[in-house]
Amino acid sequence: MSDCYRHSRVTQLLSHSRIAGLAIVCACMATASAAQQPAADPLVGRWELNVVRTHYGGGAEPRRSESFVCVASSGGIDCTIQSVRADGRNVVGGFTGSYDGSPGPTRGIPDVDHVRLTRVNESIADATFTAQGRPVFAYRTVRSVNGQWLTIISVDPTTRAVLNSVVVYDRRSR
Is the pTM here over 0.85, yes or no? Predict the structure, then answer.
């Protein structure tokens, strides 16, 4: 069967009002359903460092373990990071921000006082950390389609060029 014949046959089928009406109703229902569901937040969840899949580039301090917990708040998101560094030190830090790019406060992160978050889509967010208004470091987070992994890729805080660190977290239910 030729492609032209298949195309004309599909067109004939869709031209029938009953089928066309059904297609329109299905499209409207899908659109309405999507509009009713709140957009997923790329960071929200409890994440545990996957040491095996993680690679640290220049300047990043390796971790033995780390949890990254983010919860939605009325103004955006609040995240807390608890890590055990390679030398055994425990470090707790975090940030609160909204996805409008305005500066949000950080806590426990050395040489950083604010974070600016922007949301690319329901699976991707960018974060730029600053000290006294100057960019210090940045990353792009990508949540997997199935929501089971969060990958953080270091980027240049000004140009957004990809750098060398790739940190992978697995979703934990509790």
Answer: no
